[in-house]
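User: Thanks for the earlier help. One more: Malate dehydrogenase. Can you show the sequence and predicted structure together?

Assistant: Of course, both are below.
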Amino acid sequence: MSPAPVNVAVTGAAGQICYSLLFRISQGDLFGPDQPVRLQLLEIPQALGALDGVVMELMDCAFPLLADVQTGDDPEKVFDGANLALLVGARPRTKGMERGDLLEANGAIFTAQGAALNKVAADDIRVVITGNPANTNALIAQQNAPDIPADRFSALTRLDHNRAKSLLSKQTGAPVTDIKRMTIWGNHSATQYPDLSHTTVAGKPALDLVDHSWVEEEYIPRVAKRGAEILAARGTSSAASAAGATVDHARDLFRGTPEGDWTSMAVVSDGSYGVPEGLVSSFPVTTSNGDWSIVEDLDVSAFSRSRIDASVAELESERTAVKELRLI
Ligand code: NAD
Ligand code: LMR
């Protein structure tokens, strides 16, 4: 007998990212080949027609694991009983914008959704924020859900993590599977810090294999500005890779990071590595059964310190901005 379906709420369900994400979830990429899922899809009223078309396509795939699909525009109805909420729905930036410029436009979405999750989600709810600016939107949702433990919220820096691995793989000629202990610190923004200090490539320190000037002048800026590079090339922001990273993030959260490795997630800081408590900042984390732990006691060089501090300062200014907007 198959287990009871997991209830997965997804917002922005008629958007670009979800056009890939919903199909990945339904084919078992998140919870594995034996776990049925029920999709609970939220959209704004104007997009419910387009969402009907996406649901028709989901039906037409005849996914064996897709137990049910519900749709709606009321978060209190759509989030009812959700075990996992993937908050994707938000406006993407357009050319010339930084992700933080979206705070005013998108922040309010996350007050209402945090409050609705607080009211109607299942007791074991986990919430993953992809919509930008992801870290501070996660802070807003978390602050508006006082009855949900803060460690149930996380925001996506997995796309940056994957980009950092892929670019290092290209530079060293090693397959991505040889790359372990990659870390993204800070904000999912141009200030993020992809840190190779603890990264290994086939067991060797990554920093022994690449030039320091390449790391500082090419690697870090390329990873940090990859979203803008894609936006310039495609005319719209990354979508399939963002869906892939959302699947990777949520899959690892539930099914665990491999022994001897870690991943990057933006989580509510407990003060580790000098990141002020309460900020949603990216750290190296290990995961298991829906929970995460920050990897502690890593050495932080003076260069790393200055990079982490710069990104954390940006997160602090975003927190001040959303306080002024009365979103938290
Ligand atoms: P999109 O414009 O194609 O889709 C967004 C969808 O969200 C739209 O269908 C819209 O109707 C819906 N929406 C808006 N407000 C909503 C609300 N209150 N409730 C439910 N749905 C709502 O955008 P996209 O390309 O799918 O990107 C979605 C978000 O993800 C953007 O903010 C984008 O910047 C962000 N993003 C994040 C990452 C990351 O790594 N964190 C990567 C790529 C994109
Ligand atoms: C990305 O990193 O590709 C996304 O956050 C989209 C963006 O605005 O850069």
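User: Great, one quick takeaway?

Assistant: The two ends are 45 Å apart (CA to CA).
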